[in-house]
UniProtKB/TrEMBL annotation:
Residues 60-148 form the Methyltransferase domain. This is Class I SAM-dependent methyltransferase. The keyword Methyltransferase applies. Keywords: Methyltransferase, Transferase. GO terms for biological process: methylation. The keyword Aminoacyl-tRNA synthetase does not apply. One of its GO terms (molecular function) is methyltransferase activity. Pfam families: Methyltransf_25.
Length: 214
């Protein structure tokens, strides 16, 4: 959620990250009810494929649960969910939908080790600071059980930027994203595919979907 600092003092770096993070969080704080309702209630095929690939009785960590739509579907399929979001306002919306607590957690606060059969991160790690993404992926790999499945999605681009709402995005291309994953951990398998779609801004978007096994 932060802009990438370039050749600044540690103090300025800290404050630039706080300000940038606040700008993205401000958007979600102000739009939480509407954002939680946008999109289709029909589960995405990527989510269906993720669920099918999980073992019976799976426990899943969801990063960036948003309004809780994906979490609600997974719970309905008998999957145990630890839902999290960096926005307190969105976490509250998700709690109302799924009827269980949603933890308020930044990506860099993930400290679990070998706890999860799967990690679902739909359209959330795209807000991770570009210079933090490799470390975040390392944390996710550590949180997975051996052989655990990680699925995530990113808006493709050519480097960091903001959308028309002021939200920060890391906007990686496929090669850059692959390099982050390879630097983060030794994955058993890793695949990245580009698929057309859109988002809250209703603009045509090239999405990079990643599937990786710990």
């Amino acid at each position: 959620m932060n802009t990438k600092a370039r050749a600044v003092s540690p103090g300025l770096l800290f404050w630039s990250k706080v300000i940038a993070d606040a700008q993205t969080l401000k958007f979600y704080a102000e739009t939480a009810p509407a954002y939680a309702q946008h999109g289709s209630d029909e589960p995405d095929q990527n989510l269906r494929d993720f669920i099918v690939a999980l073992p019976t009785g799976a426990k899943v960590l969801e990063l960036g649960t948003g309004g809780g739509r994906d979490a609600a579907f997974m719970l309905g399929q008998g999957i145990a969910i630890d839902a999290t979001d960096g926005s307190p306002e969105l976490a509250a919306e998700a709690e109302r939908r799924i009827g269980q607590p949603v933890s308020i957690m930044r990506f860099d606060q993930l400290a679990a080790t070998a706890c999860y059969d799967g990690v679902w991160a739909n359209a959330c790690l795209l807000h991770a600071p570009a210079d933090e993404l490799t470390e975040d992926l390392t944390r996710i790999h550590r949180a997975l059980k051996p052989g655990g499945l990680f699925v995530s999605s990113f808006k493709a681009g050519t480097g960091e930027g903001r959308d028309k709402f002021g939200r920060y995005y890391n906007y990686p291309d496929q090669a850059t994203l692959e390099s982050h994953f390879q630097a983060a951990a030794n994955w058993q398998s890793l695949s990245i595919s580009a698929r057309p779609g859109s988002g809250y801004d209703k603009l045509p978007t090239s999405w990079l979907w990643v599937s990786a096994r710990a």
